[in-house]
Amino acid sequence: MKLWPAGPLYQALLVIAAATAVATGGYFVYRSWFADDPACAPGVSRHGPRHECVGVTDGAYTYDPSLKKVTGLIRAENERAGHRTKGAATPPATIALMIPMISDNPAEQREYVEQVQGAYLAQYRANHNTNRQPPIRLLLANPGRGYKQWRVVADQLVRAASDEKQNLRAVAGINISLKETADAIAYLTEEKGIPVVAGPMTADDIANGEKHPHRYPGLARVAPGNADQADALASYGKDIKPAETMVIEDIREGDNYLESLRKRFEELADGAPNAPETFRSPPDFNDEGNLSNDFHQMVPDICTSAAKTVYFAGRPVQLRQFLIELGERNCNKHYTVITGSHASTLTVDEKFAHHWDALTKGAGITLRYAALAHPDAWGDRSTERTGGSRAAMKELTGLLREAGATPPDLVDGRIIITYDAVGTAVEGIRNDAVGAVDMPTLAEVADSWLRLHGTNRVGGASGWICLDQYGNPHNKAVPIVHLDPRRKTAVFDRIAWPAGRAPDVNCSIPRKR
């Protein structure tokens, strides 16, 4: 098939186009006449200044070569789910994984791949390890870098929710705490009534709560928020003296993860002799910028302070830069650096791979953080009696082999937490359903979050998920880990609890007084 006719008319058009391009500076006319079609694939099109392919696919389109294998597995599973219900009264229910699918940062791209793998494993388990209905179909929704094109994708999902052939019943996996994600969640839940199950998102202000119980109606979260993580860290480090602490914080605005981490760390360091040391990261927190210079200048002041523990409120790139500079300090003092769950990215950061020795120089540095999940937290050697299940983790590791999506490891927790987010969405859709059932409404799915506690809790691989009346995980297990420079991985220390103790055997949610 020819896109242009041959012959004199075609040649004349080329001449006219070339002349017009020269007369106008060329670029804009060239793009409008000869640029590729904006459509990347059905449901996926180019948007934004970088012409990124954003949209929604059932696996027919691959956003990035790194996603090719798992995208193919999802497409095949979707086709099987469709075949299973041909002629049946109840067609498949659809869940959309809404996360950025493309990053210029190799470590972040690997995390995106792991999150898609986790979602696929939850879909596979739902369709193969149980007879409950309806079957689950999975869509991959790419809102672009930093969720900048969220509205384009959200509107597609709204249409899928009203389409009886697609039956979208939940959006899952939201993974970055930004203003754009808050806007996307508000649009989906408050304006359009679509239930959302967030994944690795931890900002405290993108949630419902006592003060704002219906800010995001239909939102459920499976990861402990930054305040819960900080409480768990405080429970673990009871011997830390505020007078021997210091806060290093990123003051960039518009990042909910940073804002809530700053607030909580400043509370933990109440009594520190020095005011927080501050820096401002680039608008894109994956950019290196010149912050290594800033951290280099901070180090002498850290050395002369009384600090032994440093609370670091920042994203992974800046954490890496800080650790490298702190490793070059002249003072012979050991430091413990405590930070949030996003530090897990360092375990897959190729640039940090060349700087593990920063943790061993001088008197050494211990980097400790609250992880979203860790395979050893509920492994065979776990001694916890409540709050999680060794069987759930064992099932997940078995699925990795059975379903053909085996990753290098589970240490950074991204597969685990996304698996649990999509699994929670499945539980909401299938709420007490047995055999052939009617498709639940969006409101029924959202209301099902009210039941997911006590004996109806979700037995997640990351720990029990007991949702409170606001859709937040109550007293969720928080694995405390540290980076081991010898083994070059994140080593599990122990589980800590936001409430200071494990939940009871029924995962009861106590009444607030």
- Going by helix content, strand content and strand pairing, the class is alpha/beta
Largest sheet: 8 strands, mixed
Low-confidence stretches: 1-36
Secondary-structure element sequence?
HHEEEHEHEHEHEEHEHEHEHEEHHHEEEE
The number of helical elements comes to 13
DSSP summary, beta strand count: 17
Strand content: 15-25%
Which outline best applies? globular
Give structural attributes.
single chain, 513 residues, alpha/beta, eight-stranded mixed beta sheet, seven-stranded mixed beta sheet, disordered N terminus
Topology:
Elements (H helix, E strand, L loop, with lengths): L7 H16 L3 H8 L4 E3 L2 E4 L4 E6 L10 H17 L8 E6 L7 H23 L7 E7 L7 H13 L5 E5 L6 H13 L4 E3 L20 E3 L4 H11 L8 E6 L5 H13 L8 E3 L11 H14 L4 E5 L2 H12 L7 E5 L25 E6 L19 H13 L11 H16 L12 H7 L9 E3 L2 E3 L12 E7 L4 E8 L17
Parallel strand pairs: 4-5, 4-6, 6-7, 7-8, 9-10, 9-11, 11-12, 12-13
Antiparallel strand pairs: 1-2, 2-3, 3-5, 13-16, 14-15, 16-17
